[in-house]
Amino acid sequence: MPEMRVHHSKKHSLPFFEQEPAGPTVRRTSGRPKCELNKTELDEVVDVQHVDMPVNFTQCFGNYICDLDGQVLLDVYAQIASIAVGYNNPSLDHSARSDEMVSALINRPAMGNFPQHNWREILTSGILKVAPKGLNQVQMASAGADANEMAFKAAFIWKRQQERGGYHVDFTATELESAMDNSTPGSPQYSIMSFKKGFHGRLFASLSTTRSKALHKIDIPAFDWPQAPFPSLRYPLDEHTEYNRCEESRCLQAAEDIIKTYHNPVAAIIVEPILSEGGDIHASPAFFRRLRQITKENNILMIVDEIQTGVGATGKFWAHEYWDLDFPPDMVTFSKKAQAAGYYYGEKTIRPNKPYRQFNTWMGDASKAILFRAIVDEIERLDLVRNVESTGKYLRAQLFELSQRSPNLFMNLRGQGTFIAFDSTDRDLFIAKAKELGVLIGGCGERTVRLRPMLIFQEHHCDILIDVLTRVARDMQCS
């Protein structure tokens, strides 16, 4: 079967891993027979409506993903932004084969009741080693939506403990009885405020804060919780400073009004540093600093959802580091590139005052915490956060040149680090054509192309990406 190896790089920096391909391999023949057969067989046992392509993970290396028909693509989507240090990373492979990992996998401890003897060391040498400034404790969860929902629970418990008179004040008999009937005062009508176009998960409480796409929410009962407007800024930012300042001021005032007047009192707000599923929407550090002040002034908690932006993707380990806050967030949720999930916090009053209030069988997964520790070690060994910062500058400069030549296909270029997006006419066709030419990218919002490369993405990968996007633009403008 004829194939084409694509070598686009204008300059070639030394790749982090020797096994990584030099470039994509794309099939010239139509159809993907093995992929289609695999998908058809899979459809007999699970829903495959959302399957993009079956993957042969044994043949994926570094930044490259391989399908069952031997097609090798430069992966600039990274399993929906969840791969940090490359496919089949040797250091992670070594960690996965350790006795410590084997024990965590085959014994999977119920961490809330029976934590393994070295659980504190695993946490402090990995998850807590990279904790956001001011947050020195962690609550583990199973996935991103679960992490957010547990953070919501923590906020509600914290709020009620305050109203009850303090951490050590016990429940009344009326509270205990009414909680079993889902009524007040045992089940108070608190709310979590989120922002328009935000995304925080697809479980029930998290879905009530998700505002990015109706398809996620349709037919599902929701809590009566408020949403505030999020700034719709104009790009380039330095050319629209006055408009953007007014827009952020408008949204901040609306958020404060909701917090003060909403009929179900707000216990906490949740916000992403970059509203990712909603179209990679940004706001300035000044916006978030004022938002933090508002939460402090109104005695509510601030939850920062770093599930997609965290672990180095923006050129900082945590994207909210760009904000230079006077006070750290109350909680920061994480998942995706961490491979583990949960939320960080600093104040012990955010812990429940009694056992079993934040609890499930496994309380996270020790094996995933071990894997996150290996990822942290690899990020430090290869200085990958710095790599993301420098590669991001290089990539944004190349994309800016493309936007000058094809403004309708590369609109509103924005991003931090390699966490980059632009808007495009006929976005879905744009993504499909890029895949045909050997690059896997993703979309979000209504017309946004989002780039989510791994932390090991380098300048020579940028050159391959830019050459493919240039060809896509040429094809779309000629058609």
How would you characterize the overall build of this protein?
This protein is α/β, with parallel strands linked by helices. It has a domain at 99-381: 3-Layer(aba) Sandwich (Aspartate Aminotransferase, domain 2), CATH 3.40.640. The chain is 37% helix and 14% strand. It contains 15 helices and 16 strands. The chain has helices spanning 33-42, 78-81, 90-96, 99-107, 119-124, 144-164, 173-179, 204-209, 214-217, 241-261, 285-297, 366-382, 384-405, 427-436, 459-478; strands at 3-5, 25-27, 64-66, 72-75, 137-141, 191-195, 227-228, 266-271, 301-305, 331-334, 341-345, 411-416, 419-423, 439-440, 442-444, 448-451. It has a seven-stranded mixed β-sheet with strand order 5-11-10-9-8-6-7, sandwiched between helices. A four-stranded antiparallel β-sheet has the order 12-13-16-15, with helices on one face. A three-stranded mixed β-sheet has the order 3-4-14. The radius of gyration is 23 Å and the shape is globular.
What's the β-strand tally?
16
What's the average pLDDT?
Answer: 94
Spatial ordering of strands, largest sheet: 5-11-10-9-8-6-7
Quickly give the structural class.
alpha/beta
Helix content: 25-40%
Question: How much of the residues is beta strand, in percent?
Answer: 5-15%
Which geometry do the CA atoms define?
A: globular
CATH topology-level fold name of the domain at 99-381: Aspartate Aminotransferase, domain 2
Largest sheet: 7 strands, mixed
CATH superfamily of the domain at 99-381: Type I PLP-dependent aspartate aminotransferase-like (Major domain)
CATH class of the domain at 99-381, please? Alpha Beta
What's the tally of helices?
A: 15
What's the N-to-C terminus distance?
Answer: 28 Å
Radius of gyration: 23 Å
Low-confidence stretches: 1-9
**Mind telling me which CATH architecture of the domain at 99-381 this is?**
3-Layer(aba) Sandwich
